[in-house]
């Protein structure tokens, strides 16, 4: 082949097509579709993906490919095909689709080297390779490139003797920790201890420790042992008695953990009924979508694992999607426990380097199960036997920037290609999925009972307006307060759940009602106690908390609402003896913090776990017998047609955290709208009732699953231009789409300004529009110049999950 068709890394409308390049003679045998190359593009060199090879150049005088970035394809034929499908379904550029399927590390700057695999020997290699590698087991990529030997190395890579390894240059990917060691000998330590003043008891303890353990230790571990603070260590370092060093720690997060091996459990009758059609699909190699509707604790995960077992026995692979599993280490443990080193884990909690390492295991076929968040759906497996999406109702399966894909759609597309079953599991399926199951588009399989028949917890709804009338102004109702005390006495644990942080702690002047807004976005700032700062959650703007009201100079400017920090403070006042662990974006932003807090709670080192929605999922602690929801309705008032559904799902999920084992569970839901059906029905664990009720409302208001949605958001620094474009688009759509289609807008978006850009939107509700995607692409085309200059931005979201 003489010519390669390449998609270049220039995300713009004009460049969203392949460009042809001549393949230099020396790489004729090497280049394959799915490899990345560097090519000259205008005055610069850019990265690109080889999509196709052909013999005849379509234009004369083609430029040559400049260099190779891979020696084996990083995207296989199927993934290239998915790339094209994504561009059609989500209207993204091909380059965005291709890059979304690869780990971020491969987009970053890196050094590359070729390494001898531990299973191979030097003398097996091609003579030229042997000569170059000599005694070493690795060689820098550019050394090979300089000598024009890439094609020879490729032979050994294909044979499985060598592999290409990327070292991400970005320093932040290296994880370092501080360690200390004694700077003096053991006998000198003795002398020093004698000279220290009496009140330096902590320092003495630390020195005593080193007298018997004369070796380096991580500061973190030392503090744990001594129960002292970092300042103790710091002063010893200052005095020159201890030596502090940064050391690098290895980046496999699961490396030093041992996993308790588990074996398949004998299935219950219900589980047997649910798994048998799935096994039949695996056996017959037919694609089918199963909706596994099973209450929390009904043993869905056990069914997933046994289905995967069957798939592995046939030498095939399995993809399991779980929502942001960094948040549920318990889930990782279950899969690693059952399938051991056959499992790769991909989730957002991993650093870029770690993710890339896991991806490489999949690419090299060293694993056959991947457990991961959304993007794991693109795992480069080639022989998939099952795809499972746990908690299928989770909105994090939808990506919110380009390509705006939903993992469920990709899963079904791949399931068709591989002739394998796709299993969607949930205790509260989305209305869309349940409606499809009722119409037999999906096959419904149901688990009605909890394993070993644990009853679902009793749920009590508390009307907070009533509490207020009775003079209780705190954020805890009498009932919840009493139950918290009761659990404390019995040595049982409680979980307190606060619906999202966000604008719950906004700052307002009590005299004039002035609310502190972000100067760049029309949204209130959030108060952060630890730094005494106000932050914007949309543009990262920060400012100090003012002492007086900027509007009227009053000193009565306060923060309002119930952020997790505020709840924590009130807990400390009301139940000072309770040990509380707080989990929110602030306390878990550091890597590993999440897991650590959960572990502490699991080990019984706290009485109350307080947190945002991140504690709603997947937690399973036997000693938790009380779940309190502080304000169930905060989400109900969001401008989002899914707000009732989300409230119902969340309440059902948190309720499922209580009484999962021997002890009975109890749930208290506090709300200002106790009569709302999503709250009452959740309290009765009545999904079917909720489904019926909500379907009626969706039908009435023409929302999914009765209609499809497309949301177009126009944004521009000038208000007049924003409105102008939004109006033109809306008018054009009204003219071009069928009269059965409903077009709303243009109206200002619920957040009318972000980052100094005004925002207007237009919503399309339709049942069938053959040409919609073509039409929308045409609109993007029409404005491409303004978009390319970054003055205008047009976002088109087919099947939107965020309406703001
Ligand atoms: P779900 O995923 O539906 O919430 P799980 O799979 O987590 O449910 O199961 C809940 C609990 O029941 C877990 O502790 C699990 O180990 C246990 N379990 C599941 N299936 C069985 C079974 N067939 N026999 C005994 N215990 C089981
Ligand atoms: Zn004021
Ligand atoms: Zn802002």
Automatic annotation (TrEMBL):
<dbReference type="GO" id="GO:0008270">
    <property type="term" value="F:zinc ion binding"/>
</dbReference>
<protein>
    <recommendedName>
        <fullName>Replication restart protein PriA</fullName>
        <ecNumber>5.6.2.4</ecNumber>
    </recommendedName>
</protein>
<dbReference type="GO" id="GO:0005524">
    <property type="term" value="F:ATP binding"/>
</dbReference>
<comment type="subunit">
    <text>Component of the replication restart primosome.</text>
</comment>
<dbReference type="GO" id="GO:0006310">
    <property type="term" value="P:DNA recombination"/>
</dbReference>
<keyword id="KW-0347">Helicase</keyword>
<keyword id="KW-0067">ATP-binding</keyword>
<dbReference type="Pfam" id="PF18319">
    <property type="entry name" value="Zn_ribbon_PriA"/>
</dbReference>
<dbReference type="InterPro" id="IPR041222">
    <property type="entry name" value="PriA_3primeBD"/>
</dbReference>
<dbReference type="InterPro" id="IPR005259">
    <property type="entry name" value="PriA"/>
</dbReference>
<dbReference type="InterPro" id="IPR001650">
    <property type="entry name" value="Helicase_C-like"/>
</dbReference>
<dbReference type="Pfam" id="PF00271">
    <property type="entry name" value="Helicase_C"/>
</dbReference>
<dbReference type="InterPro" id="IPR011545">
    <property type="entry name" value="DEAD/DEAH_box_helicase_dom"/>
</dbReference>
<dbReference type="Pfam" id="PF00270">
    <property type="entry name" value="DEAD"/>
</dbReference>
<dbReference type="InterPro" id="IPR014001">
    <property type="entry name" value="Helicase_ATP-bd"/>
</dbReference>
<keyword id="KW-0479">Metal-binding</keyword>
<comment type="similarity">
    <text>Belongs to the helicase family. PriA subfamily.</text>
</comment>
<keyword id="KW-0547">Nucleotide-binding</keyword>
<dbReference type="InterPro" id="IPR041236">
    <property type="entry name" value="PriA_C"/>
</dbReference>
<feature type="binding site">
    <location>
        <position position="521"/>
    </location>
    <ligand>
        <name>Zn(2+) 2</name>
    </ligand>
</feature>
<keyword id="KW-0235">DNA replication</keyword>
<dbReference type="GO" id="GO:0016787">
    <property type="term" value="F:hydrolase activity"/>
</dbReference>
<dbReference type="Pfam" id="PF18074">
    <property type="entry name" value="PriA_C"/>
</dbReference>
<keyword id="KW-0413">Isomerase</keyword>
<feature type="binding site">
    <location>
        <position position="539"/>
    </location>
    <ligand>
        <name>Zn(2+) 2</name>
    </ligand>
</feature>
<dbReference type="GO" id="GO:0003677">
    <property type="term" value="F:DNA binding"/>
</dbReference>
<dbReference type="GO" id="GO:0006302">
    <property type="term" value="P:double-strand break repair"/>
</dbReference>
<feature type="binding site">
    <location>
        <position position="552"/>
    </location>
    <ligand>
        <name>Zn(2+) 1</name>
    </ligand>
</feature>
<keyword id="KW-0639">Primosome</keyword>
<feature type="domain" description="Helicase C-terminal">
    <location>
        <begin position="544"/>
        <end position="712"/>
    </location>
</feature>
<keyword id="KW-0862">Zinc</keyword>
<feature type="binding site">
    <location>
        <position position="509"/>
    </location>
    <ligand>
        <name>Zn(2+) 1</name>
    </ligand>
</feature>
<dbReference type="InterPro" id="IPR040498">
    <property type="entry name" value="PriA_CRR"/>
</dbReference>
<dbReference type="InterPro" id="IPR027417">
    <property type="entry name" value="P-loop_NTPase"/>
</dbReference>
<feature type="binding site">
    <location>
        <position position="512"/>
    </location>
    <ligand>
        <name>Zn(2+) 1</name>
    </ligand>
</feature>
<dbReference type="GO" id="GO:0006269">
    <property type="term" value="P:DNA replication, synthesis of primer"/>
</dbReference>
<feature type="domain" description="Helicase ATP-binding">
    <location>
        <begin position="281"/>
        <end position="447"/>
    </location>
</feature>
<dbReference type="Pfam" id="PF17764">
    <property type="entry name" value="PriA_3primeBD"/>
</dbReference>
<feature type="binding site">
    <location>
        <position position="549"/>
    </location>
    <ligand>
        <name>Zn(2+) 1</name>
    </ligand>
</feature>
<dbReference type="InterPro" id="IPR042115">
    <property type="entry name" value="PriA_3primeBD_sf"/>
</dbReference>
<feature type="binding site">
    <location>
        <position position="536"/>
    </location>
    <ligand>
        <name>Zn(2+) 2</name>
    </ligand>
</feature>
<keyword id="KW-0378">Hydrolase</keyword>
């Amino acid at each position: 082949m003489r010519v390669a068709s390449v998609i270049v890394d220039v995300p713009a409308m004009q460049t969203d097509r392949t460009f042809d390049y001549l393949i230099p003679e020396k790489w004729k045998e090497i280049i394959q579709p799915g490899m990345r190359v560097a090519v000259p593009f205008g005055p610069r060199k850019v990265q690109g993906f080889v999509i196709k090879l052909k013999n005849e150049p379509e234009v004369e005088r083609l430029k040559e490919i400049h260099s190779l970035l891979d020696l084996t394809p990083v995207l296989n034929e199927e993934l290239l095909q998915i790339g094209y499908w994504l561009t059609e379904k989500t209207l993204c550029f091909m380059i965005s689709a291709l890059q979304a399927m690869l780990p971020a590390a491969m987009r970053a700057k890196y050094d590359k080297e070729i390494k001898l695999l531990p299973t191979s020997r030097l003398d097996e290699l091609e003579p030229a390779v042997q000569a170059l590698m000599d005694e070493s087991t690795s060689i820098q990529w550019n050394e090979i490139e300089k000598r024009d030997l890439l094609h020879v190395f490729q032979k050994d890579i294909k044979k499985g003797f060598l592999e290409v390894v990327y070292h991400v240059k970005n320093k932040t990917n290296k994880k370092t920790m501080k360690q200390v060691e004694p700077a003096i000998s053991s006998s000198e330590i003795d002398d020093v201890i004698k000279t220290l003043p009496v009140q330096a008891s902590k320092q003495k303890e630390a020195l005593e420790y080193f007298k018997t353990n004369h070796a380096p230790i991580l500061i973190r571990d030392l503090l744990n042992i001594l129960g002292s603070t970092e300042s103790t260590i710091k002063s010893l370092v200052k005095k020159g008695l201890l030596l502090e060093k940064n050391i690098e720690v290895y980046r496999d997060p699961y490396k030093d953990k041992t996993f308790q091996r588990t074996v398949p459990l004998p299935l219950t009758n219900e589980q047997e009924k649910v798994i048998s059609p799935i096994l039949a699909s695996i056996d017959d190699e037919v694609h089918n979508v199963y909706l596994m509707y099973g209450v929390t604790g009904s043993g869905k995960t056990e069914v997933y694992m046994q289905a995967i077992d069957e798939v592995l026995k046939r030498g095939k692979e399995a993809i399991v999607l779980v929502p942001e599993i960094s948040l549920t280490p318990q889930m990782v443990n279950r899969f690693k426990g059952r399938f051991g080193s056959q499992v790769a884990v991909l989730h957002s909690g991993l650093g870029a380097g770690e993710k890339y390492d896991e991806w490489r295991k999949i690419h090299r076929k060293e694993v056959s199960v991947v457990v991961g968040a959304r993007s794991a759906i693109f795992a480069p497996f080639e022989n998939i036997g099952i795809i499972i999406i746990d908690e299928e109702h989770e909105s994090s399966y939808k990506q919110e920037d380009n390509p705006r894909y939903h993992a469920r759609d990709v899963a079904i597309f791949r399931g068709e290609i591989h002739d394998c079953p796709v299993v969607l599991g949930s205790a509260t399926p989305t209305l869309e999925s349940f409606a499809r199951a009722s119409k037999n588009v999906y096959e419904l399989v149901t688990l009605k009972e909890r394993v070993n028949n644990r009853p679902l917890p009793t749920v009590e709804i508390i009307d907070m307006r009533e509490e207020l009338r009775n003079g209780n102004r705190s954020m805890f109702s009498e009932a919840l307060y009493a139950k918290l005390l009761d659990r404390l006495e019995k040595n049982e644990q409680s979980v307190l759940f606060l619906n999202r942080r966000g604008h719950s702690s906004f700052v307002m002047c009590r005299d004039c009602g002035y609310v502190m807004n972000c100067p760049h976005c029309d949204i209130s700032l959030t108060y952060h106690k630890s730094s005494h700062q106000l932050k914007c959650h949309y543009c990262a703007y920060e400012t100090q908390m003012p002492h007086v009201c900027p509007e009227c100079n009053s000193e009565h400017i306060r923060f309002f609402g119930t952020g997790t920090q505020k709840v924590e403070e009130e807990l400390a006042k009301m139940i000072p003896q309770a040990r509380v662990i707080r989990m929110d974006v602030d306390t878990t932003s550091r890597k590993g913090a999440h897991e650590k807090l959960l572990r502490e709670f699991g080990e019984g080192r706290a009485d109350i776990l307080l947190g945002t929605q991140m504690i709603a999922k997947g937690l399973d602690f036997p000693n938790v017998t009380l779940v309190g929801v502080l304000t169930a309705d905060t989400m109900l008032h969001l401008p989002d047609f899914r707000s009732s559904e989300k409230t119902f799902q969340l309440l059902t999920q948190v309720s499922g955290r209580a009484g999962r084992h021997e002890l009975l569970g109890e749930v208290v839901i506090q709300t200002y709208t106790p009569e709302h059906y999503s709250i009452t029905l959740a309290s009765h664990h009545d999904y079917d009732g909720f489904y019926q009720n909500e379907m009626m409302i969706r039908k009435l208001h023409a929302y999914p699953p009765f209609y499809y949605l497309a949301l177009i958001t126009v944004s521009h620094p000038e208000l007049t231009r924003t409105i102008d474009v939004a109006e033109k688009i809306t008018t054009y759509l009204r003219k071009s789409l069928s009269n059965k289609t409903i077009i709303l807008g243009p109206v200002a978006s619920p957040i009318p300004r972000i980052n100094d850009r005004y925002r207007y939107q237009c919503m399309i509700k339709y049942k069938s529009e053959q040409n919609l995607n073509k039409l929308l692409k045409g609109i993007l085309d029409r404005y491409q110049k303004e978009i390319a200059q970054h003055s205008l931005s047009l976002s088109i979201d087919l099947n939107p999950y965020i309406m703001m």
